[in-house]
Every structure is written in C-alpha cells, then in structure tokens.
TrEMBL record:
Family matches, as Gene3D superfamilies: Aldolase class I
Pathway recorded for this protein: Metabolic intermediate metabolism; (S)-3-hydroxy-3-methylglutaryl-CoA degradation; acetoacetate from (S)-3-hydroxy-3-methylglutaryl-CoA: step 1/1
Stated name of the protein: hydroxymethylglutaryl-CoA lyase
The enzyme's E.C. designation: 4.1.3.4
Keywords noted in UniProt: Lyase, Metal-binding
Annotated GO MF terms: hydroxymethylglutaryl-CoA lyase activity; metal ion binding
UniProt record, GO biological process: ketone body biosynthetic process; L-leucine catabolic process
Family: Belongs to the HMG-CoA lyase family.
Top-rank EC class of the record's enzyme: lyase
Organism of derivation: Chitinasiproducens palmae
PROSITE patterns reported for this sequence: HMG_COA_LYASE, PYR_CT
Length: 298
C-alpha cells in the first residue's frame, strides 16, 4: 500500500542554484526561499556552507539565511562538509545540517576531496557537535544508483555508507541518484536492501532526472515504502562534480503525481508553479517542469 502522506523536501535553492553557471543575485535566492515557504513546504534546503573555491555559487549562504522570513516549524537545511561549515551554519541559525558522502570512492574524491573512510571521520565531530547543539542531522549518500566515474555501484557499498551515516546519528539519510541513471526495478532492489539496515521511514529518495527516470523511480520507491522525496522547483540544477548531470526531478511534477495518487503533501501546487515561473525567468532558463510548462501555457 502507498503511504497516505509524504514529505517533499525542496532542494532547488541549494542543489538547483549551486549548478548555475551565471551568478544568481542573493535577493533572488531569498525571494525563491520565501515563495517556497509560503507554498507550504516544511523543509527547504536553502544553503551550503562549503568552500567558495569549490562552489562559488553558494558563497552567500549566510546572507540568504539572514534575510529569509523565518517561519515557525519550518526546517531550513544546509550542507556542512566539515566543522567550519557547521560553525557557519550554526551562526546562520540553520535548523538542520547535512553531511554528504558517497557510495563511490571516485565521486567522494572529486566532490569532497577525501576517501569514503576519511569522510566519515571528518563527519564524526560535525555530527556530534550538531547533535549537541540540538540540530537535526541528515546524511546524504551520492551515487547510490551509479557513479559518473565508476559506473555500477554495488548495493553493499550503499548499505555500508547508509549504516555509517546512521551510526553517526543522522535522523534521516538521503539515497541519491546523482546522475539520474537508476531505473525502477533497481531502485526497488536498493531500497529493499536498505530495509535490512534501517526502517525506510528514515530514508529519502533524492533523484536527479538526467535520464528521465525520476518519476518512475519515485513510484518504485513509494511502493517499496519510502515516504520522503527531494525535488527541485522548475527542475533547477545539475551537479558541479558530476559531468552532464541535470537537475533534480521537478517539484511540480512530483506534486502532480502525488495528487493523482491521492497522497497528501501539504504543498500548494499552483504556488509552486508560480515559483517555478519566477525563478526560471529570474535566471533566464527554460522552465524544467513539464507540469509547470503545461499549466503556464493554458
Ligand atoms: P579541501 O580543499 O580538501 O579542504 O576541501 P581544506 O580544509 O584544505 O580547505 C580548502 C579551502 O577551503 C581553504 O581555504 C579552507 O579555508 C576553505 P584556503 O586556505 O585555501 O583559502 N574551506 C571552507 N570555506 C568555507 N566554508 C567551509 C570550508 N571548508 C574549507 N566549510 C571541502 C574539502 C569539503 C571543503 C571541499 O571539497 C568542498 O567544499 N566541497 C564542496 C563540494 C560541494 O559542495 N558539492 C556539491 C554539493 S554535494 C551534491 O550536490 C550532491 C547531493 O545533491 C546528493 C546527490 O545528488 O548526489 C547532496
Ligand atoms: Mg543532488
């Protein structure tokens, strides 16, 4: 049976905008986050506290967090790869921090400049300090369904990193298809394997839509028992360390699917469509949501 309700985490302001080649003005980012909050999301990934040399697009995270209209009960999340990132996130009064690793060694090296084992040791103090400060802690596992450098990724590698993230104290772990290569049966297999590691209520599906499989993969994950999904308004994004990758599945398309399935999200699809139109115009990009384009053309 499908869940009656799912949580959709909006990652466009982070995963989407981190990949924009052109500079996105800070006020545009702030308006994007505020519009998304008004649309009803309970969790928005709004910033990254990473090296500005690695990802210059995210260098204004503190300014974004300082100016968004904070709403009660809303979880604003940010990526924190190390202690320096955690301290910046705390100063910015972020509610949830995200440690991000990978199930493939090559991607770990390219993305965060260390091995998987080294990353876990680097995350350990970050996780401990986050917990001590009462922050929510999320882990992200890239390349769970394939790696741009290594190809196939063994499911045991995914299980292993998910287990280590949970051991560090993560409340939730994101199982990410960084390059959008997974297909539905594979997705069901990976989540079935992960169900032997943890209750699936603690895992989320983070699907990029590079190969057009994301909605099918979400349906497969739903049927396996996953009830948290990440999505990016207007399908914004790509990944700076995954050549050829495109954005996350468009939030509008996921909401439309959920509506059709009778699954409650608490999010206003029309408001998200308007927000997708706003951000696509603001950054001068075609709207990457099929539902958004169809509705806006009416
Ligand atoms: P490093 O070079 O090994 O680390 O980078 P370092 O400690 O030697 O620091 C290098 C420089 O960065 C130093 O500056 C530090 O001060 C500075 P310098 O002395 O050269 O002037 N620095 C920082 N500055 C600001 N905030 C910080 C910070 N840390 C160091 N927190 C590091 C290691 C992890 C820092 C680097 O590799 C990095 O920042 N990587 C970020 C990669 C990234 O953001 N990737 C995109 C997000 S992940 C993603 O999109 C995948 C996801 O969506 C899931 C999926 O789809 O797969 C989550
Ligand atoms: Mg991603």
């Amino acid at each position: 049976a499908l869940p009656a309700r799912v949580k959709i985490v909006e990652v466009g302001p982070r995963d989407g905008l981190q990949a924009e080649a052109a500079h996105v003005p800070t006020p545009v980012k702030i308006e994007l986050v505020d519009r998304l909050a008004a649309a009803g999301f309970a969790n928005i990934e709004a910033a990254s506290f990473v090296s500005p040399k690695w990802v210059p697009q995210m260098a204004d995270g503190a300014d974004v967090m300082a100016s968004v209209t904070r709403r009660d009960g809303m979880i604003y999340s940010a990526l924190t790869p190390n202690m320096r990132g955690l301290e910046a996130a705390q100063a910015a009064r972020v509610d949830e921090v995200v440690i991000f690793g990978a199930a493939s060694e090559s991607f770990s090296q390219r993305n965060i400049n260390c091995s998987i084992a080294e990353s876990i040791e680097r995350f350990r103090p970050v996780a401990a300090a986050a917990k001590a400060a009462g922050l929510r802690l999320r882990g992200s596992v890239s390349c769970a369904f394939g790696c741009p450098f290594e190809g196939e990724v063994p499911v045991q590698a995914v299980q292993d990193v998910v287990r280590r993230m949970l051991d560090l104290g993560c409340d939730e772990v994101d199982v990410a298809d960084t390059i959008g290569v997974g297909t539905a049966r594979q997705v069901a297999g990976v989540f079935d394997a992960l169900a032997t590691v943890t209750p699936l209520s603690r895992l989320s599906g983070h699907f990029h839509d590079t190969y057009g499989q994301a909605l099918a993969n979400i349906l497969a994950a739903l049927q396996s028992g996953v009830s948290i999904f990440h999505a990016s308004v207007a399908g914004l994004g790509g990944c700076p360390y995954a050549p050829g990758a495109t954005g996350n599945v468009a939030t509008e398309d996921v909401l439309y699917l959920m509506e059709g399935l009778g699954i409650v999200t608490g999010i206003d699809l029309d408001a998200v469509i308007d927000t997708g139109d706003f951000i696509s115009r603001a950054i001068g990009r075609p709207n990457g949501s099929r539902v958004g384009r169809a509705r806006l053309a009416r």
